[in-house]
Specification:
By secondary structure, the protein is an alpha/beta fold. The chain has eleven helices and 14 strands. The chain is about 35% helix and about 20% strand. A hairpin with a 2-residue loop joins strand 5 and strand 6.
């Protein structure tokens, strides 16, 4: 349930409503807009929620029930866009942000080289996996903490914040020491213990949609993070598994405008994992921007044919530069910047 305060409601009016929420055994979450404050009621309590108890209080304009199961994540609860800070920009605002880098961190020298290259082309942040979840136990699994140190050095050289995956709840603290954004990958989207832990970290989180999950599944997973008081969450559409064989996954372009309509959280698109073939990545990226994506996360490698993981879907430096130039044109055409 949400309580919408009147325009110009006093601080005491707001405090009184919050006090009543807590007295009833629920948790109050405040969203302060330019004109009105919205107070959300979440949690469980033996005390029934009665709208009349709040609608009659001083300063209250109206009381509304939230009809969807994801409360904190929904636009009903939080009608204004959430902006997530990233390298001096805001994901969810007008600028389309681009996170770029290798699938996996392979060496110190290469990590720094890639960071410099994507920054020069206009990237907002550096992506790179120090820990890699792989389908085969015999595939390259990443360099672990050593890889995180290489990423941190690349950040020192370029100023680009780090986006990297965390796979285990017990590793959240260590990864958070190095990373600016904790990525929860598609395979871990419903690892609820991990979601709660990254929520408690209060670090910015990039949450990827699972390959066989619905949009509601994704929003419910985000709810776990927000329930820990962490609203610095970005959602990521990275394609879903279908019967199609000519692409790695099927990019769900529907998800971008639908998610933007249902949640206040920024939506990032991952064209690399979506299509799986570098020659098509730019086309999917352009479509995502046109559909309203707040940003992109793209894999870039100096020699994709030699990459230790996901080389087939990685852009080389020239391909990334060309993609960035074309993104600017599409962004401008839909009233955005890049």
């Amino acid at each position: 349930m949400i309580v919408v305060m009147k325009k110009g409601a006093s601080a005491q009016d707001i405090s009184n409503v919050v006090g009543r929420v807590e007295l009833d055994g629920y948790k109050a979450s405040l969203t302060e807009g330019e004109e009105r404050t919205i107070i959300g009621l979440v949690g469980e309590s033996p005390t029934p929620l009665r709208e009349d108890n709040y609608s009659s209080m001083s300063g209250v304009e109206r009381v509304m029930r939230v009809s969807v199961p994801y409360k904190l994540t929904s636009r009903e609860y939080h009608p204004m866009d959430t902006h997530v800070a990233l390298n001096g920009s805001q994901a969810g605002a007008n600028k389309v942000l681009v996170i770029a880098g290798p699938c996996s961190v392979e060496s110190r020298e290469q990590t720094i080289e890639i960071a410099c290259a994507v920054k020069e082309a206009g990237a907002t942040a550096l992506r790179g996996g120090a820990f890699k979840p792989r389908t085969s136990p015999y595939s390259f699994q990443g360099h672990g903490e050593t890889g995180l140190k290489w990423l941190a050095e690349a950040r020192e050289r370029t100023g680009l914040p780090i986006v990297t995956e965390v796979m285990d709840p017990g590793l959240v603290g260590m990864v958070a020491e190095y990373a600016d954004v904790l990525q929860v990958g598609a395979r871990n989207m419903q690892n609820f213990v991990l979601l709660s832990e990254v929520g408690r970290s209060q670090h910015t989180v990039l949450l990827k949609r699972g390959m066989a999950n619905t949009m509601e599944d994704l929003l419910m997973s985000a709810e776990y993070i927000l329930a820990q008081g962490n609203q610095r969450v970005m959602l990521c559409e990275r394609g879903i598994r279908t019967f199609e064989k000519y692409t790695r996954n099927t990019f769900d372009i529907n998800a971008i405008p639908v998610l933007k309509a249902r949640t206040h959280l920024p939506v990032i698109a991952d064209p690399s994992h979506a299509v799986g073939y570098s020659e098509h990545v730019t086309s999917i990226a352009l479509a995502a921007v046109a559909a309203g994506a707040d940003g992109l996360i793209v894999e870039v490698h100096p020699t994709p044919e030699r990459a230790l993981s996901d080389g087939r879907q990685s852009l080389n430096y020239d391909g990334f530069k060309q993609m960035m130039q074309r993104i600017q044109l599409v962004a401008q055409a839909v009233g955005r910047s890049a």
